Structures are given as structure tokens and as C-alpha cells.
């Protein structure tokens, strides 16, 4: 049996998102905004990223940085750059990933929660040149602090992102949903919807 890739319509149908939320996110993707998707473990970060990728036009190239084959390329314009802990030092793995991204020259770079490369260095070197969709843990309500901790990025790098999507998971029911969509303006998170 194959892996099912959720669409925006699926997430709306199951109550994980609203049409208004996806309209904001669709416009952000088509405008090549830098997007952070944050939430606790098992809150639906990867599923939301997969749904967002349905908005990316077929003639745009997408580089997905993942670890241990966890992301499946479900569209022909997706190139997966798979990483893993191996005998190479972290800096070498990170340099290899940066070189592959530059060689591909994608319209979007997706980084799905991983710690096999130095994500902070990737952002420092590439965020001004490419659009990013990135997932990060956020275990408290201090979203900016959590993202800075888990991705090991500076406040300055955080502020380069345009949109933050906060996910919540109800631990009693298991229901996952978009809690809020924020714009990043002058270092602050401002609710959009």
C-alpha cells in the first residue's frame, strides 16, 4: 500500500484547516513567501507541508531536504535531498546540501524537521536567494523562542520569514488543526487568521 499525500481539500474536510486559512497560505506560496510551520510532535507539520506543495505550480522546482527518506516525492518537480548521520562531519554534510540546492536552483526549498545538517547555516547562506517552507518543533506558546531553539537560528534569521503557521494537537482526541496563521512584521508575530 502506498503513502497517501493529503491535499488542502482533505485537511479542510477533516476540520484541520479552514478555506480562509488555505487561501492565505495559497497566496503566500504563490508569492514565494518564506513559511514556517510549527507545532508539537505529531501535530501534522509534514502533512500540512505536503498539502501546501499542491499549490506549487508544476513548472517550479522544489528541493526537499529531509532525513532517512522520510519525504516522498509525489510530484515530478520535487527533488529530494536525503540526509543522514554518517561518517561525514556535520559541516561537510551541510556544505553538500547547500551545493546541491545551488546546483538545482529551485523555486522553493522545503526543510522538514531534521537535525542531520546545520539548518541555521543553510538559512544564513540561502534565505535571501530562495523561498523556504520549513517545519519546526514548538512545544510552548513562545513560538519565536521555540523556533530559535530547535532550528538554532538567530532572531534576525527568524524575522526573515514572512508567515508562521501554528499547529495544535488535542492530546485527548488526537485532532490536529491549524490554530493560527501569523505574519512576521518587525520581529513580531501578528495574527492574520
SSE inventory with pairings:
Blueprint: H1 8-13, H2 19-30, E1 35-39, H3 45-53, E2 62-67, E3 78-83, H4 90-104, E4 108-111, H5 119-126, E5 131-137, H6 143-151, H7 155-158, E6 163-169, E7 176-185, E8 188-191
Structural class: alpha/beta
DSSP summary: helix tally: 7
Rg measurement, Å: 16 Å
Q: Please outline the major beta sheet.
A: 8 strands, mixed
Order of the strands making up the biggest sheet: 3-2-4-5-1-6-7-8
What low-confidence regions span 5 or more consecutive residues with pLDDT below 50?
A: none
Task: Walk me through what this model shows.
This protein is an alpha/beta fold and 193 residues long. It has helices spanning 8-13, 19-30, 45-53, 90-104, 119-126, 143-151, 155-158; strands spanning 35-39, 62-67, 78-83, 108-111, 131-137, 163-169, 176-185, 188-191. 33% of the residues lie in helices and 25% in strands. A hairpin with a 2-residue loop joins strand 7 (176-185) and strand 8. It is globular, with a radius of gyration of 16 Å. The chain starts with 7 loop residues before the first helix and ends with a strand. The model has no long low-confidence stretch (mean pLDDT 92).
Brief rundown of the structure:
By secondary structure, the chain is α/β, with parallel strands linked by helices.
Keywords:
8 strands, 25% strand, 193 residues, alpha/beta, single chain, 7 helices, globular
